[in-house]
Every structure is written in C-alpha cells, then in structure tokens.
Amino acid sequence: MPSLAALRVSERSVSGGIAAAVTTPETIKLWLPSQIGKTASCDTRLQTIEWKLRYAQAHDALRSLRSNLRAQTAILKYKDRNLRGQGANTRARNTLKAVEARLEAAASTYERAHKALVVLTPLVNQTGWHSSLRPLNRTDIRSMTDLLWGESEGTRKLSWIWNMRGAAPDEMDSDNAFEDMRIEWCKARARAMRWAEEVELLKEEMRRILQFFEWRAQCWDERGLEDALHDVVDDDEREGLLAYAKRQASLCRRLAESFRTSWTDTLALADSFNDSLVTQQDKDID
Q1: How many whole angstroms separate alpha carbon 66 and alpha carbon 71?
Q2: By CB count within 10 A, which of 84, 105, 120, 199 is most buried?
Q3: Are 91 and 191 in contact (CB under 8 A)?
Q4: Helix (H, G, I), strand (E, B) or coil at 168
Q5: What residues contact residue 260 under an 8 Å CB cut-off, 6+ apart?
C-alpha cells in the first residue's frame, strides 16, 4: 500500500524521533487495515481478509474463555472436595494461576479482535455479527454457575458468552466440561515429565562434577609420585613439586566433598520427587 510510507513518516514526525531510538520488533506498528481505518486508502481485499481473520480470532478467543472457565470451575470443585495438605493446595493454586493467566490472554485477544471488527465493518459492509460478538466486560468473564453481586439463584443471569451460538448445548454438557479438565491433566503430566527429565539431568551433572574432581585428584596423585619426578635432579625442587601436587590433589578432594555436602538436601529432594512421580504413574496405570 503506497499510502503506508506517508503514514510512517507522519508517525515519526509526531514522535519527534524519540521513539525510534527505543523501538523494538515487538512494538513496531504493522499498519494493518484496521489500524489505517479511513485515514488513508487501503485495498478492499486486504480489509476483507483482515475482517475474516479478526472474526475467527474473536470466536477462538471466546472458545478459549469458555474452555478455561470450565477448567477453572472443575479445578476449584476438585480442590474443595478432595485436596488436603499444604503441598497439594499449593499445586492447585499454581494451576489456577496458570488458568487465570490464559483467561486474561484470551480476554485481551478478544478485545483487540472486537476493536478491529468495529473499525473494519463500515469499510467492508459486513453486518449481523454484533449479536454474537458483543463488547466484553470483565463481569462477563464468569462461569455458568457464578453469581454477580446482588444476584440469587432465582434472578441469576447467564453471561452472554454462554448464550451465543456454539456455546450450547454441546459445550455445556458434563462430558465436554470434563474434557477441559482432562486436557489440563495432560498438560500437567507433560510438565511433570519434563521436570523429571530436568531433575535427572541435574543429578547427572552433579555426578559428573564429583567424578571430575576425583579424576583430577588422581592425576595430581600420579604427578606427585617419585617415579614421575625422577628427571628432577634438585632435591629442593623435587620436594616443592611433590608438595604442590599433593596440595592440588587435596584441593580437588576438598572441593568434591564440599559440593557433595552442599548437594545432599538437593539430591534427597530430587529422589523424593522421582519417587512421588513413579507412585503417581503407577496409580494412573491402575
């Protein structure tokens, strides 16, 4: 689009060149058709392409919102009914924080897509989408069972994200609700397996470090043997080299012992983690 060059020059002149010094690839304005609007001419085909993209993006974001809200509800119910102890509740809270982060990301994605649709609609003459893709308020981001302040079971009003086409009835049955919980379980298991691999790598690195220091100590022991110093004629020099070799060997062994002592708690924690993971895998198999 030839008009983009003029827009970029105008943007740089407005910023006075200050922003150019700190511009990063993530903050560069792409000047999509929705960002241009009516300020400059734009190919209608590009506007239509972005409209379709934003329309699909908005629906994907709503599906992500509903999916994560169902997962959040299932996790909260499971936590209240089954979890006991600080460790289990801490893991559940961490999982809930991850779900909340995905909810925030999906909401931001929907808001950007909706804003672009509002700009593009008069340019591409698309109608009829406002009834299904409404402005998203923070109070709309709630599960089917959540109540707003002042509502009761008799006056409860379902959020519009659950009333739109595609949300019911297939997304509201119990099988599909627990499908999101199963997905969360699979993701958590994949993370646990990845952590287990990292633990094994850490243990192997520790073992190799200790083995390296033992090997270095043996090398200095061999250098300090009388046979290795037979070419040295001066007795004082031989005695100095022998003392230096013994000192280096002792230093390597002390370093190995220091690391071994400082890693005792870490290795014990790693072993307990692996044991708990194996136990959980056995339960999953049963």
Answers
A1: 9
A2: 120
A3: no
A4: strand
A5: 210
- 85 Rama sector, left if φ>0, alpha if ψ -120 to 50, beta otherwise: left
Peptide bond into 169 cis (omega under 30): yes
Q: What is the pLDDT of residues 145-190, one digit of tens each?
A: 666 655 555 456 778 888 776 555 444 445 555 666 677 677 777 8
DSSP 8-state code for residue 273:
H
Residue 177 is encoded by which pair of tokens? Answer: 């609700």
How far is it, in rounded angstroms, from Cα 77 to Cα 179?
A: 15
pTM of the model: 0.56
What's the rounded Cα separation, in Å, for the pair 281 and 111?
Answer: 41
Query: What 8-state DSSP symbol labels residue 117?
Result: H
CB contact at 8 A, 158 and 88: no
| Sequence spans of domains, the chain | 1-31, 44-172, 196-285
165 DSSP 8-state letter? B
pLDDT tens string 6-57? 666 666 666 655 555 566 777 777 778 887 877 777 778 888 999 999 999 9
What's the angle, vertex CA 284, arms to CA 278 and CA 286, rounded to 5?
A: 105
- CA gap 6, 210 in Å, rounded: 64
d(C-alpha 244, C-alpha 281), whole Å: 53
Q: Where are the alpha helices (DSSP H) in 83-173?
A: 86-124, 160-163
First to last CA, the chain: 62
- The span from the CA of 146 to the CA of 149, in Å, is 10
Paired tokens of 137: 């308020």
Most distant CA atoms of the chain, gap in Å: 103
DSSP class per residue in 207-233: HHHHHHHHHHHHHHHHHTSTGGGTT--
Q: Cis omega (within 30 of 0) on the bond before 122? A: no
